[in-house]
Design brief:
The protein is α+β, with helices and mostly antiparallel strands. 26% of the residues lie in helices and 26% in strands. It is built from 20 helices and 44 strands. The strands form twelve sheets. A ten-stranded antiparallel sheet has the order 3-11-12-13-14-22-18-17-16-20. It has a six-stranded antiparallel sheet with strand order 36-37-38-44-40-41, covered by helices on one side. The termini are far apart.
Length: 886
């Protein structure tokens, strides 16, 4: 497709809707008001900015507004492949067969202008951004309803054309879809999800999708509803030979009837090892139901009368569809619930030949799809209720709905083929779907979500891989595991910071105690990369911009300082005073020199190597998106200040001034080469700009990586937004986050697929960091400490939290002379020795209650921060509330 033709026909810019919207919320701008095509004064509509802070309501996408076509919410378990939930409620994509393709829809789009990689947009360049995938349906799946109201009988299939309206509520991990027909006296809602329970990796990693239908009868007469669900047998979808036979059979386990699809491979043992060899299954999780091994298409009213529970075989060129049917009688005014599940089992996962690990984690418990369905059926109440409890806990908040959606939905990346978990338990991931392997440290260290929602996965990865397989005798950590045996300086520094986070997200010190010598060794390696011992890393080593730069580069310098400070904090806990002193001295020296030598009065820069100068590509005296990234990381793990607050704020304000634009169109029109992750009419934070108008801002030898500088990559934008939020730049943080949210509106592209180097890019999980800083959340499990300092609506605030072994919600009401707060545990067990919150007054009275029991506590107030210390450890279990009055 030619670029101009695509832009006219794709619907992304239909009638200029989004370009007009950009003008409506900002501007207009005169040419003299732009610096390098970016407005210094953003001229944002104050009412629009104010609206970003309002609670609002759940994002709803409508059939009538043509907003359902691109929706693809991952609804399989984490690390089990990619199954998309479409806007009409059907499943699509089905990347569960271990193909390891690059991108959800491998393709190249002709672009016309030159990118830094040519004139085609590949999957890794954002082809699904400019030409969103839709209707990839390698197998039949769906549901239909036979509805009898008096003498009238209706047939409604779960396709858009059969309904007057469909409304999709985008609440990951559980979507609600409403089906509306003017001729029916029914309210039909489908809640679709895979069990998702923070801290519970097994229950959240089931290869299945659940449909829970709620049907209310609004008429004055009884209504009969028969629900028919089906799934095509496409086992061995690529490898099946002409003599192979697919088969469906009914497997009974008590009242559960599962129809399982498999294949007879004509005796070939080699085919048993094919990636797409396995089983598929479908079941009704209710009481009595009918199973059909060979459903005939097309679906008509007669389909509901089909009866065939016999073992059925067909050749691979014949369609073989399994189905289940359940009938419900609904009294006037009554509501029924009907539950169905689809499961898959394709355990022959094998990636790079250098990797010994293989297979899928779920194969430790299940040998077939039918076993998965049996487990779901037997544990349905717990799995469904706890998943719903998490959804309700997450969204029952004072934070804006859209903000909760955008900061959390990127963890759905774990439920795509970006992320895998081998049978050994090892977590292994690409950067984006099928692109850039090795659980790359310099990308995954931006992803804040996993460490907070599934900390066990991150702890295991730090210990098993970063401090195990990848750690070298000199302390260097391979940045892509065994597939690339070299270092990335930002990846190693970020990994040390993640190690500190993983320690904090533990219930005790076992993780730190076991790994301390290795952590120390890895930190010493980072310190040694400072050749001139001025506290500023200056060894040319690979970084996340796929470059090896010379000189002292602010964002790498400060990230290393942050890493060493984290190591110093761990040394203090280990009572390793000698190493703590080494770390503290490095941090003090590095911070001082960075502020003196790398700050140009507005922002932090890249100081060229004294000998090589600007020989290589670099960011030099330009405004770079990650320039104070180490301080951003520090806020995530409560390390305190690394860089002077005033200078940090000036740097962030410069990023806002010089790099943020409500419409990237004018900028990218004159600066080609960047990949299309934001297009004309869309706002974003550009990676790097040249405010000083230097003639050679990026060095003497311009290479292909320069294209990165002109892009809007959402993971980096989320990192900056999280930092701005922490520093009190709440308006700017919310605007940047909202610009990303709007770029991924369902009318334009898939809201659940933030794209960088391929789809479902790991770095985008930095969005969770903005949630953390919006709450002002701190947690240290081994010390039993938790803190909140909300940045958004602190006067009346409520938000969820996760800890090492529990999750729940925090709530506060604050005035000039009072503060009341409470902590409610919904799941697990939380142990606390201290708790910090922020009051606006001098505290003289203190009351701490565990339910109705008074808890002895002392208070230490430093400025507005009040730290409450309990006389003994408090342990909260589900349903218990800890209340504070200060």
């Amino acid at each position: 497709m030619q670029r101009r033709f695509f832009l006219k026909t794709s619907g992304i810019f239909a009638a200029g809707m989004y370009a007009n919207r950009a003008r409506a919320i900002a501007g207009p701008f005169l040419p003299g008001e732009l610096v390098h095509n970016i407005p210094v004064d953003k001229k944002l509509d104050p009412q629009w900015v104010k609206s970003l802070f309002q609670r609002g309501s759940v994002s709803k996408y409508y059939k009538s507004k043509n907003e359902l076509n691109f929706i693809g919410m991952p609804v399989g378990g984490i690390n089990t492949g990619t199954v998309y939930l479409g806007g009409d409620g059907r499943l699509w994509l089905w990347d569960i067969f271990n193909s390891q393709q690059e991108g959800i829809d491998p393709k190249s789009v002709d672009w016309g202008t030159e990118l830094h990689v040519g004139k085609k947009v590949r999957s890794r360049d954002g082809s699904a951004y400019v030409q969103p995938a839709r209707d990839i349906r390698p197998m039949e799946q769906g549901f239909a309803f036979k509805i009898q109201v008096g003498k009238q009988t209706y047939l409604k299939k779960m396709i858009a054309d059969d309904w007057d309206e469909i409304i999709f509520e985008a609440t990951y991990p559980m979507a609600s879809i409403r089906y509306i027909s003017k001729e029916l006296p029914l309210e039909i809602t489908a809640n679709v999800y895979s069990p998702f329970i923070p801290l519970d990796e097994k229950s959240s990693g089931l290869p299945c999708t659940i449909y829970s239908f709620s049907i209310k009868n609004n008429s004055q007469m009884p209504v009969s509803v028969s629900i028919l669900g089906w799934l095509e047998n496409k086992v061995s979808i690529r490898s099946a030979g002409s003599k192979d036979i697919r088969r469906n059979e009914v497997l009974a386990e008590g009242k559960l009837k599962t129809v399982q699809g498999s294949i007879n491979l004509n005796g070939s043992l080699l085919q048993l090892q094919d990636p797409d060899f396995g089983t598929l299954g479908i079941a009704s999780l209710g009481g009595d139901s009918k199973a059909i091994t060979d459903l005939q298409f097309p679906i008509t009213l007669a389909s509901f009368a089909q009866q065939n529970e016999k073992f059925t075989e067909k050749t691979i060129d014949q369609q073989l569809i399994a189905a289940v049917r359940a009938v419900y009688q609904i009294k006037p005014g009554a509501t029924i619930e009907a539950h169905f599940s689809i499961a898959w089992h394709f355990a022959n996962l094998k990636l790079n030949q250098a990797i010994q690990d293989k297979g899928r984690y779920y194969a430790n418990w299940f040998s077939s799809a039918s076993e998965v369905l049996t487990y779901v059926h037997q544990n349905f109440s717990s799995l469904s209720n706890t998943s719903k409890l998490w959804k309700n806990t997450w969204f029952d908040s004072s934070l804006p709905w859209w903000f909760l959606e955008r900061t959390f939905s990127n963890i759905s990346t774990l439920a795509t083929t970006t992320a895998h978990r081998f049978r050994s338990g090892r977590f292994y991931a690409w950067e984006g779907v099928g692109c850039c392997e090795g659980t790359c440290t310099h990308v995954w260290q931006y992803a804040q979500a996993v460490g907070r929602i599934f900390p066990g996965i991150e702890r295991d990865t730090r210990q098993r891989i970063d401090l195990g397989l990848s750690l070298q005798p000199d302390g260097m950590i391979w940045y892509r595991g065994e597939v690339v045996k070299t270092a990335a300086i930002d990846g190693q520094a970020g990994t040390i910071l993640r190690i500190y986070r993983e320690h904090q997200m533990s219930v005790d010190k076992k993780f730190l105690n076991k790994n301390w010598d290795k952590i120390k060794l890895a930190t010493e390696w980072v310190i040694r990369q400072d050749k001139n011992q001025d506290g500023m890393e200056d060894t040319p080593i690979e970084n996340t911009l796929d470059a090896v730069w010379d000189g002292e580069i602010a964002w790498l310098v400060v990230l290393c300082i942050a890493a060493v400070k984290a190591a110093g904090a761990m040394a203090a806990e280990m009572k390793d005073s000698e190493f703590e002193k080494i770390c503290n001295e490095y941090v003090i020296k590095g911070s001082r020199n960075m502020e003196e030598k790398l700050f140009n009065g507005e922002y932090f820069i890249h100081r060229p190597d004294e000998i090589k100068g600007r020989e290589k590509l670099g960011s030099y005296n330009t405004c770079h998106i990650d320039q104070v990234y180490g301080q951003s990381w520090s806020h995530q793990v409560a390390l305190g200040r690394i860089i002077d607050k005033e200078k940090t704020l000036k740097a962030l304000q410069s990023l806002w001034k010089y790099n943020f634009t409500p419409d990237v169109g004018p900028y990218i029109k004159e600066r080609t080469g960047g990949r299309p992750y934001a297009l004309a009419g869309e706002g974003g934070l550009v990676m790097n700009t040249n405010p000083k108008n230097e003639t050679r801002p990026y060095g003497d030898n311009i290479t292909w990586q320069l294209g990165y500088f002109h892009e809007c990559m959402s993971g980096f934008e989320h990192q900056v937004a999280s930092h701005m939020m922490a520093e009190g730049m709440t308006d700017e943080a919310m605007v940047i986050t909202r610009m990303i949210h709007d770029r991924y509106h369902a009318a334009k592209r898939n809201p659940f697929n933030e794209i960088e180097c391929s789809d479902h890019y790991a770095r985008a999980m930095a969005s969770y960091g903005t949630f953390i800083t919006a709450c002002g959340f701190e947690y240290h499990g081994p010390n039993g400490h938790m803190a909140f300092n909300p940045k958004l609506n602190p006067e009346k605030f409520k938000a969820p939290f996760t800890s090492a072994a529990a999750w729940g919600c925090y709530e506060q009401e604050r005035g000039s002379q009072k503060l009341q707060a409470s902590l409610l545990v919904q799941y697990g067990e939380l142990s606390l020795n201290s708790f910090s919150l922020h009051a606006l007054h001098q505290v003289t009275d203190l009351q701490v209650m565990l339910d109705d029991q008074l808890i002895p506590a002392s208070i230490l107030q430093e400025g507005n921060r009040c730290t409450l210390k309990f006389s003994s450890t408090i342990r909260l279990v589900p349903g218990q509330k800890l209340s504070f009055k200060v």
